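Letters spell out the chain; backbone shape is given numerically. Take this protein:
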Amino acid sequence: MARNWLEELVSEFYRFQNYLVMTDVDYQVGKTRERSVRGHSDIDVVAIKSGQIILIECKSYWTQKTGTAFKKLKEQFRSSEKQFQKKFPFFKGRVKRILVTSGKPAKFSSTMQGRTH
């Protein structure tokens, strides 16, 4: 079951299009330069259909600086793709990565403050 409204909305969107949908697919995360301890992470939504695997990260808020956030997101997608293929080797297909957010990156929000339209 999805953990927030955005994950639920994305899950239902793909189910409506006849995708096999999994939510909160857990995987272990090893130590890295940025991470000194091992832990767990998850893929928010995985949608599978006709040889296509879509890994979806849902952010119902976006508060980090844009450069840092995208760097972390890129690493998270790389890690989650490897872990997904390791956990589910029988799913074969082209992998697509999608970020869904309900907010704007902080960089864009700060530049828009004070402007009127």
